[in-house]
Design a protein that fits this description.
Helices cover 43% and strands 13% of the residues. The chain is of the alpha+beta class. The longest helix has 41 residues, at 308-348.
Length: 349
């Protein structure tokens, strides 16, 4: 793409990486010689800049290889930074949010760029604290007309199942790799372990659809594009544990009979129907809160606290609040129905 003679080698790290000097401008860059590459990826990165992506200064073909000249970044790899024992979970989360921002930039390209080898050693934290995603050797642009990847690249233990030939990589492939890093970075944090588990689902359909969804889950926001978990199978049947299955086979009928057996003293038939409906809804909501059935309670404050005692106390408090809310709704609905029937009786009779 340009004249390679302007770059003078200063230091050779290995067969692929060199430190070079632009003899015209005096700037120092990293030069990479790639045998595997997607030309469209580097063209996009060259034409579009982002804080979390190294600036591509130049790139050109040298025979069947691609030479890439990019910004030289001083800093540490992600694993060195994240594994600092003095780093708080809040600070770790901030780094992951920046990482998500960089991935969003790639995935939102006109032809989405899938990194396919996202791992701590391919992420830098600059001396200024900026998170930067590097090494696009395995990256590719998503092509909707393909059923699977033509080249299987990635790192064992980080690569998503589809990278082994099951289907074409897409944004959810990077989300899988991101999930493995969240799992490793927050070993004792229940909230983040849940996020990691969903991100690492074997079936891409069960993962977060977008990085924005995952980022919203980390920050506790519920995005407009957020997706609830599948309703089937229900709690008790999801882990295929015989103990939990037996408990569910007993528990669900019991909850049903409790709901239909509730009645109010001297209540009208409509009052009885309303209270039974509300008790049924309350039971489902409490089941959801305690088991993360749909995931809609996962962002509620303290619901996924790392301390198990705190979690149970918080869920108990929320359940008590739920009872008062249910009774309030019952009074309102009963009053509305009663006025409705009074109106109808006067109007028609």
């Amino acid at each position: 793409m340009s004249n390679s003679s302007v770059y003078k080698e200063l230091y050779q790290y290995d067969n692929k990486h060199r430190l070079v000097l632009n003899e015209i401008t005096g700037d120092v860059f990293i030069s990479k010689t790639l045998a595997h590459y997607d030309y469209d990826v580097y063209r996009f990165l060259y034409e579009h800049h982002n804080l979390h992506i190294p600036r591509i200064i130049d790139f050109y073909k040298d025979g069947d290889k691609l030479v890439v000249i990019e910004e030289y970044i001083r800093g540490d790899t992600f694993d060195v930074v994240i594994n600092d024992p003095d780093l708080s979970d809040e600070k770790k989360e901030n780094y992951f949010i920046e990482l998500c921002d960089g991935l969003e930039f790639l995935h939102n390209a006109p032809h989405p760029v899938i990194h396919r080898d996202l791992k701590p050693s391919n992420i830098l934290v600059s001396e200024g604290g900026r998170v930067i995603i590097i090494d696009y050797d395995a990256a590719k642009t998503y092509k909707a007309d393909r059923d699977q990847d033509t080249t299987f690249l990635g790192t064992e233990g980080r690569a998503a199942p589809e990278q082994y030939g099951f289907m074409q990589s897409d944004a959810r492939t990077d989300i899988y790799a991101l999930g493995t890093m969240i799992r490793d970075a927050f070993p004792d944090n229940r909230k983040y372990q849940k996020i990691a588990k969903k991100a690492m689902s074997f079936d891409p359909e069960d993962r977060y659809d977008t990085v924005r969804e995952l980022k919203d889950a980390m920050t506790g926001r519920i995005g407009l594009d957020s997706k609830l978990k599948s309703l089937w199978p229900p709690p008790g049947f999801r882990t295929r544990s015989w103990g939990k299955i037996c408990l569910a086979l007993i528990g669900y009928p019991l909850l049903f009979f409790i709901a239909i057996g509730v009645k109010t003293k001297d209540g009208t038939p409509s009052d009885q129907f309303i209270i039974r409906m509300l008790v049924g809804i309350y039971e489902l909501l409490m089941l959801d809160m305690c088991t993360s059935w749909t995931g809609m309670f996962d962002s509620v404050p303290l619901i996924n606290h790392s301390n198990i005692i705190v979690r149970y106390v918080i869920k108990f408090i929320y359940s008590i609040i739920g009872i008062f809310v249910m009774m309030f709704v019952y009074v309102i609905l009963s009053d509305i129905v009663r006025h409705f029937w009074d109106f109808m009786s006067v109007y028609f009779y």
